[in-house]
Amino acid sequence: MKQRILETADRLFYGRGIRAVGVDTVAAEIGISKRTLYNHFPSKDALVLAYLERRLQSLPDSDRPPLEQILGTFDRLGRSFGTAEFRGCAFVNAVAELGEESAAVRDLAIEFKEARRLWFRGLLDRLGIADPDGLATQLALLVDGAIAAFLVRRDPAMALAAKDAAMALLAQAGARQAPADRQEPV
Q: How far apart are CA 158 and CA 145, in angstroms?
């Protein structure tokens, strides 16, 4: 039941907004009482935190070359932009809606954003970049900027523009495939 509640809350909070959806709506969507929902989540705040924690997923490990993984981020964004369901970053949306009311929500958003930046940093380390922290921050900003630009313009080409900027930054930093990541011609 807890999983069903979280799946429903995720769909509703992400699709309609946290403030727009009450626990009564979540319970009604599932066909349970508010009391049953509160047995699993003692408050709406607890449900919101669980919804966001559920979205805190590690980026998958991959054997693909680091440059391919980094640039693939922007390809995935482009695919997401092409769906009707895409409403941006759930963490940014939550912070925008709840503002200063919830330090816990802000902390989860920071954790999510820092995990992505550190993922970029790890890949940049493998590429031997001189300033992996700086470039990782720039790449993370490109992701966030592409999302914001798409939400305003509704133009999926924003992902491609961000990818082009990422390629320019990577080239300027001297990004090359690490020897272990190169594949020999077949």
A: 9
What pTM was estimated for this model as a whole?
0.89
Q: How far apart are CA 23 and CA 37, in angstroms?
A: 8
CA gap 143, 40 in Å, rounded: 35
User: What is the rounded distance in angstroms from the CA atom of residue 43 to the CA atom of residue 23?
Assistant: 8
Residue whose token pair is 């077949």: 186
CA distance 62 to 80: 20
pLDDT tens column, 15-56: 999 999 999 999 999 999 999 999 999 999 999 999 999 999
Find, among 144, 171, 173, 1, the residue nearest to 73 by Cα.
144
Q: For residue 124, how many C-alpha atoms fall within 13 Å in the half-sphere facing its CB?
A: 26
**Amino acid type, 17:** G
Dihedral over alpha carbons 170, 176, 180, 184 (to 10 degrees): 120
Contact yes or no for 112/56 (Cβ under 8 A): yes
